Amino acid sequence: MHEIVKIALIGIAVICVGVFIAACRKGSSAEKLTSAGSVYFNIRQLSAVDSSEGQVVTWLGTHNKSGKEARFRIELTLKEPKQGNPFTFGVGAFFHEEPSDPAVLLEEITQALEAKQVRPGDSRTNKLSFTTAILGRNLSRGPGKDLLAGSFTSDPKGDWIAVKVFVADGEGEFFLNLNSRKGQGEFSIKDPEYGDVVVRELAKVL
C-alpha cells in the first residue's frame, strides 16, 4: 500500500514539473512578442459613455518603478469603423493625476522613443488633447494576416486596441496600445524623428 502511494506521489510530482516547465516556456514565448521601443504601464478602465461622436472611454494609467509612481488618465473617443475600412479617426486626451511622480516614466519614454534633444515643456497643464487614428480593435499581439502598430494583428482576434496618437498639431506621433482585460498599456515608438516632440508634450501633463 505504501508503495502505491509513493508511486502516485511521484506521478503527481512529475505532472506538476511538466506543467511548470510548459508555463515557463509559454511565458518566455510571450516575452518575445512584446513590442520593441515600448514603455509599459498598468491601466484600469474607469468609464465608458456613449456620445454622439462615439464611445468615450476613460482609463487610469499607473507606472511604478524605483519607488516612483506616475499616475495619469487617458480618454479616447472610439467610433465604430465603417464596413470595409478597419481604421477610424477621433480625439483623446491625457489628464494629470495627483499624487504623481513621472520622473522614471519620462526617462523610460525618452529612451524608448529615441528622443535626443528634449527641451522642457513650455508649461505644465492638467490636460493634453490629441487626435487619433484607431488602427484596430480586438487585436492580438504577434504575426497574422496583417501588421498593425508594429506588433499587432486582427487575425486572430484579441483584446488590444492600437492607436496612433498625434500631438503638437501633428508634429509628433507615437503608438498608444491598450488592453483593458489584461490591465496593460504601452507607449510605443512610431519613428525616432518624432521622439523629441512627443516627450516634450507628454512632459507637460504626466
How would you describe this structure to a colleague?
The chain has 206 residues and is an alpha+beta fold. The protein folds into two domains: 1-32; 37-205, no CATH class. The protein contains three helices and nine strands; from the N terminus they run αββββαβββββα. The protein has helices at residues 2-32, 103-112, 195-205, and strands at residues 38-51, 54-65, 68-78, 88-96, 127-141, 152-153, 160-167, 172-179, 184-189. It has an eight-stranded antiparallel beta barrel with strand order 1-2-3-4-5-7-8-9. The termini are far apart.
Structural class determined from secondary elements: alpha+beta
Please state the average pLDDT score. 84
Question: Into which percentage range does the β-strand content fall?
Answer: 35-45%
Order of strands, widest sheet: 1-2-3-4-5-7-8-9
- The overall strand count is 9
| Main sheet characteristics | 8 strands, antiparallel, barrel
State the helicity in percent bands.
25-40%
Please report the distance between the alpha carbons of the first and last residues: 66 Å
User: What's the total helix number?
Assistant: 3
The value of Rg in angstroms is 21 Å
Please mark out the parts with pLDDT under 50 across 5 or more consecutive residues, or reply none: 5-10, 12-33
Shape field:
globular
- Number of separate structural domains: 2
N-to-C order of helices and strands: HEEEEHEEEEEH
